[in-house]
Amino acid sequence: MKKRALISVFYKDGVSALASRLSEMGWEIVSTGGTAAHFREKGIPVLDVSEITGFPECFDGRVKTLHPKIHGGILARRGEESHAQALQSLEIGAIDLVCVNLYPFFEKSRAGLPQAETIEFIDIGGPSMLRSAAKNFADVIVLSDPADYGETLAALESGNVPEALRKRLAGKAFNLTSAYDAAISRYLLDEEYPEYLSAPYKKSAGLRYGENPGQSAALYLRADMPGAFEGMEQLNGKELGYNNIRDLDLAWKAACAFGLKSKAGNAQPFGEAEARRLVPEAFADTAGGGVAAGSGEFCCVAVKHNTPCGIALGDSLLEAYQKTFACDPVSIFGGIVACNAAVDARLAALLGELFLEIVAAPGFDEEALEILSRKKNLRVMRLSKAPEDPLELVSVDGGLLAQQSDRVLLDKWEVVTKAAPSAEEARDMIFGMRAATFAKSNAIVIVKDQAATGIDAGQTNRIWAARQALERSAFALAAESSAWKNGEPARVLASDAFFPFPDVVQAAAEAGIRAIVQPGGSMNDRLSIEACDRLGIAMAFTGARHFKH
Fold it and tell me: Does the annotation count 304 as an active-site position?
């Protein structure tokens, strides 16, 4: 009997060449409606599945290959005498190759279609055939990826399809169907933490190495939902590495937390609605209404070793960058800069003066790109989407930790001291808490005029973080590169978590801090409040902790 190939694909790329070559080699091609019509248009001999099953496609195409004459022909073991006899007695022809790709549920599940329409893109027959063929890979070749057509044809033409190839193709088929089922499960299950955690991650790129050269690595992106890295364009420079991607992820999230200005739409700043409701005075222009002066919408973030070393707002992106650079002109060397708006030539000229690993923004004008491209190794990345994944995953040995993304900036706004912050100070307090969200705990951010002047993070106790952030702030404000020329100290301190002791308040007072924002919730809150009242400092509790490990 002729060898028989069952080919049923949604995406037709490369399939005509596959079918044509198989036909030339003497194979019989069996197919379903749309694929069969495609082959006939190309002049390739084809047999409809319904001619084999003796049963028409029905229920709007929901049932066409779910039949014993199809699955029996796939699953029968060729070396088993009883199976051979069953094929003969039941008049079932063996199927030796199955080529299937699936209805585009990955794409359609994220398209915002009505549920009834989306469900029609759940493929049943395709995964069933792939699984049957993959189970019987010793006798049946299974193709689920057009990238494998050429290698498989070459093996068939040589007269030997090695077991290792068959096994790998079977593994790829199950890899695809498991991700496909995961996407369907995630779509239908309205549970944040289901019994089994499954998600369809598709390999986007192999990486040169991981955190260190001795570690291999790869980047996977969700196939069923958009993310910030989807559609990312690299406009210049070397390929991204593991550490680059980790740092880029944090830098982009931090920049977008202050609002994203892109052609894809302006994303709102993180916690903006709560902040405006709870602290309206921070958004009021006391000089006559409208948005407060100095509350710039342009954001620039510098990241080094997965923590911010500078972050600022400005009335222009250039001003925001100048403040960001002034926060820590040493650590920015070899770091990443992310901007929430398009980069122009003036900013590009300044960025080009530094050694940076990455510059990321939603756009670059033509002259800016030409300037940045003069540095052949500088990675220039265009991203247009704000981060939106609601779940964060962290690996532990043999498992995963899953948690909601940190999405609550302020749970409350309670001024707990006799002194109240001014509108300007309240504005800087909100800015500081946003910035602290992206710095590793224990994190302290010192703020002046909508910009960090000192950041310290990752310390094992809070007083060390406070002292070093204050020291760095004083150094930054006094440096020749300072973007602040009035000589006044920074007035606001933001902390990602509560103070266990009043020592941070004392250090802040000695450095001239006039307002502190922190979550509150310590058994010793009273001691910090009393210290603030004694020293004339305003302090507000937000009720929202922002630990980041």
Answer: no
